[in-house]
Specification:
alpha+beta; 6-stranded antiparallel beta sheet; 2 domains; 5 helices; membrane
């Protein structure tokens, strides 16, 4: 005795060929996947990232963890776009003090398109600003 796995099929199903049956299942699933893809594209293009949202809510800087953005830098941070050179020097000093865990005086100054990081009169690194769409990317390079 054969027991069908799925119940009896209607007359309409029996009249359809395999292509029509496949299309009846595939087409709605395909439309759903297209809608999900378009929603994700909208979300990535229009909505702010987590770092951008933190900067909008008052954070001075946010650590970047994407290796493609960090590149050959030791550290990379996102900062607010349009910050003055004095504000950027203060941010760099704060970051360096946090990274080095030292109470030493760490300063930064702007020279020839980049920021020079100085601790106790010795140059310990440099920082470069790269413009992004809504924020600036601060890349820090420490001397070996």
């Amino acid at each position: 005795m054969k027991i069908p796995l799925f119940g009896g099929h209607g007359k309409r199903w029996e009249e359809q060929n395999y292509a029509q049956r496949f299309g009846g299942i595939f087409f709605p699933a395909f439309i759903a996947l297209v809608v999900i893809f378009l929603f994700n594209e909208y979300k990535t293009a229009q909505l702010p990232t987590l770092n951008e949202e933190m900067l909008m809510n008052g954070a001075e800087y946010c650590l970047v963890t994407d290796l493609n953005e960090i590149g050959d830098a030791d550290y990379a941070y996102e900062i607010k776009s349009g910050s003055s050179q004095e504000e950027i020097c203060g941010i760099i000093s704060s970051i360096c003090i946090d990274l080095k865990r030292e109470d030493d005086l760490v300063n930064a100054r702007y020279e020839n398109g980049e920021y020079i990081i100085i601790s106790n009169g010795i140059t310990i690194g440099r920082a470069v600003i790269n413009d992004k769409a809504t924020t600036d990317l601060l890349k820090i390079y420490f001397c070996d």
